[in-house]
Specification:
The chain is of the alpha/beta class. The chain is 37% helix and 14% strand. It has helices at 28-40, 54-64, 84-98, 120-136, 150-153, 177-185, 205-214, 218-228, 240-245, 256-263, and strands at 5-7, 13-15, 18-20, 44-46, 72-77, 105-108, 143-146, 165-169, 189-193, 232-233. Strand 6, helix 4 (120-136) and strand 7 (143-146) form a beta-alpha-beta unit. The longest helix has 17 residues, at 120-136.
Amino acid sequence: MEDKTYKLSNGVEIPVIGYGTWQTPDGETAEKVVDLAIKDGYRLIDAAAVYKNEESVGKGIKASGIPREELFITSKVWNKDRGYETTKKAFYKSLEDLGLDYLDLYLIHWPANAKQFENWDEINKETWRAMIELYKEGKVRAIGVCNCKPHHLKSLMEMEVKPMVNQIEYNPGNRQPETVEYCKKNGIRVEAYSPLGTGRMLDNPALLEIAKKYQKSVAQICLRWIIQNEVIPLPKSITPSRIKQNLDVFDFELTPEDMERINELPDFGFSGNDPDTITF
């Protein structure tokens, strides 16, 4: 495998690919697939309070037997818990549910937006203030955001600790160039959720053609394209063969021509959840 980690702006190392737990059924399924993913070689496990499976994810982490310091565990504060006190409370709840002493990364799941709140920027800053304190207390090794466009990030970039990660919806059919460019320019590492567009990428003719050329699956082509763009993909599957296959993307490289061909695909992978217009 090529370089297995990137350095975040504070020097903390983060794996180049992670395993997502969104929509993973709580209970035995979540426990088993997280254990399996870690045993297959994933070291970044991406969790969130709103996924309602953190206790099971925590059991899977423990069952893997891999030393805690070799893993990179992420959780997120949900929208109803934004704000100073509530963010701290939510953090400790996730920590308890996951059965951990600390997190490697804690993220604001969605920014408050102007459509929902007049004081949206203030809400985001208060949430971030709590994150900074948790970070300074050593409870979490890195902090960041999800679903933030440049205008959501502006105020946070002026605070004492800047976001280190922005996890966004990102795949060959939804590339968000302005946000990605802003993050790269400002030292914020981009993570990609829905790297396969929740399946929307898999029957795209251009991607099928490229996959055939490399004798890889469309999923592997998508993940490889993301990695070559220096973004961290977070594929999610509960199928053992796919969990393994999604990690098998380090024995080939897309040519500059194929990268460009993918970069020029029309937009077809957006879920419709725009951080400026969501109401949840």
